[in-house]
Automatic annotation (TrEMBL):
Keywords: Aminoacyl-tRNA synthetase, ATP-binding, Ligase, Nucleotide-binding, Protein biosynthesis. Its EC number is 6.1.1.2. This is Tryptophan--tRNA ligase. InterPro entries: aa-tRNA-synth_Ic (IPR002305), Rossmann-like_a/b/a_fold (IPR014729), Trp-tRNA-ligase (IPR002306), Trp-tRNA_synthetase (IPR050203). It is an enzyme of class 6 (ligase). It comes from Nocardiopsis gilva YIM 90087. Belongs to the class-I aminoacyl-tRNA synthetase family. GO terms for biological process: tryptophanyl-tRNA aminoacylation.
Length: 336
């Protein structure tokens, strides 16, 4: 019998997730949790690089945790925890830094992008505005993954390099200390194809950074307004329309049943269905899909909910594993 494989992923705590995150990350991760050993954590120390307002960070942490639980994460099955609750991660990051070439970090995409922005803006010091948290980001991420001895890391394609770096760093460690202890070399699991990349309300990829996203748990009236604001052309109601170039249709197709989607496609192609009708349908489908989860979300973010207990229980389980790994690593390097 094959040994159980460990799946681990980290989620930055920077604002309420949107329906693109749901389709691209949350839903597949919850499906994986039904079959595998899973650890999902809130990368709150990673978020500290960008979120510098303590109140916002505090509320984002709760919001992201509540989102996962409201979407169906079973905390008995999946270990859900805050990165910051597992201090062994930072100990391992320090050890990994001692075997990581600075040149590797120099080539990291996020760091290079920051330098490119300075260059384009004519700033003489290309490192201006770059803090060490950003520079060290890939090492901390490697520690997150290796400390749980993860085999698979489901992430978006933008994270490919981070996973390669983690595998590289694990390889260096194993080469040096492998007689005593070796990390499993983790593999990335990436979403297939473009089909699951949701467009935002302006037609570009939905992303918090483009401010074109539909947050998961908007109050009903706000959700309705946002859906109505999706730009559409001025094709008259009677005219036939192309569903495949329509943002509201593409969004509908992700959440409606196959029959519903096919029927709506027909109505658009035949003419007689206006963009307004389509947006009403989209609103209804989103509201039906996320309404019950929104209720659970509201309960969970309340100050006296069981959210903190769930995170604490997750942290205790995660720490047990982290401590075991760090003990082996310390012994391997000679600090025991
Ligand atoms: P954002 O671009 O809004 O900041 P992140 O980069 O934090 O989102 O992505 C978190 C997760 O959600 C990743 O796994 C990513 O692949 C997925 N994701 C983000 N945007 C979309 C989208 N528009 N469609 C599908 N999946 C997405
Ligand atoms: N860098 C990831 C992102 O921006 C978040 C993250 C931090 C992560 N540590 C991780 C993802 C470990 C997977 C495994 O989305």
């Amino acid at each position: 019998m094959a040994a159980t494989k460990t799946y681990l992923t980290g989620i930055q705590t920077s604002g309420m997730p949107h329906i693109g995150n749901y389709i691209g990350a949350i839903k597949p991760a919850l499906a994986a949790a039904r079959e595998h050993d899973t650890l999902y954590f809130l990368a709150d120390y990673h978020s500290l690089n960008s979120v510098k307002e303590p109140e916002k960070l505090r509320s984002d942490i709760r919001s992201v945790a509540a989102t996962w639980l409201a979407c169906g994460l079973d905390p008995e099955r999946t270990i859900l925890y805050r990165q910051s609750s597992v201090p062994e991660v930072f100990e391992l990051a320090t050890i990994l830094a001692t075997i990581t070439a600075k040149g590797l970090m120099n080539r990291a995409h996020a760091y290079k992008a920051a330098r490119d922005r300075n260059e384009a803006a004519g700033v003489a010091d290309l490192d201006a505005g770059v803090n060490m948290g950003l520079f060290n980001y890939p090492i901390l991420m490697a520690a997150d993954i290796l400390i749980m001895e993860a085999d698979y890391v489901p992430v978006g394609r933008d994270q490919v390099q981070h996973i390669e770096y983690t595998a590289d760093i694990a390889g260096s460690f194993n080469h040096l200390y492998g007689d005593s202890y070796s990390f499993p070399i983790p593999k990335g699991v990436f979403p297939e194809g473009e089909a699951s990349v949701l467009p935002g309300v302006d037609g570009r990829k939905m992303s918090k950074s483009y401010d074109n996203h539909i947050p998961l748990f908007l109050p009903e009236n706000k959700l309705k307004k946002l859906v109505r604001r999706i730009p559409t052309d001025s094709t008259p109601v009677e005219a036939p329309k192309d569903p495949d170039t329509s943002v509201p249709f593409q969004l509908l197709a992700q959440f409606a049943t196959e029959e519903h989607t096919a029927a709506t496609r027909k109505r658009l192609e035949a003419g007689g269905m206006g963009w307004g009708d389509l947006k009403n349908e989209l609103f209804e489908v989103l509201n039906t899909t996320f309404g019950p989860m929104r209720e659970r979300y509201e309960e969970l973010i309340a100050p006296d909910s069981d959210l903190d207990d769930i995170l604490e229980a997750g942290a205790a389980r995660a720490r047990e594993r982290a401590k075991a790994t760090v003990a082996k690593v310390r012994a391997a390097v000679g600090i025991d």
